[in-house]
């Protein structure tokens, strides 16, 4: 399953939404944490194994990247 993690910097966190899966939201301190966080959230909501979720990360271009 392929999904997109749309990331926007919000205060001290990356706020992450997944448009392909209703209700899939999470947050992360660093962008490198996003794929695992999204895979876990999607796995719970969509009923698929987390290791079968391929995440493409799209970060707000004006925000921090660390």
Automatic annotation (TrEMBL):
<dbReference type="InterPro" id="IPR035069">
    <property type="entry name" value="TTHA1013/TTHA0281-like"/>
</dbReference>
<protein>
    <submittedName>
        <fullName>Uncharacterized protein</fullName>
    </submittedName>
</protein>
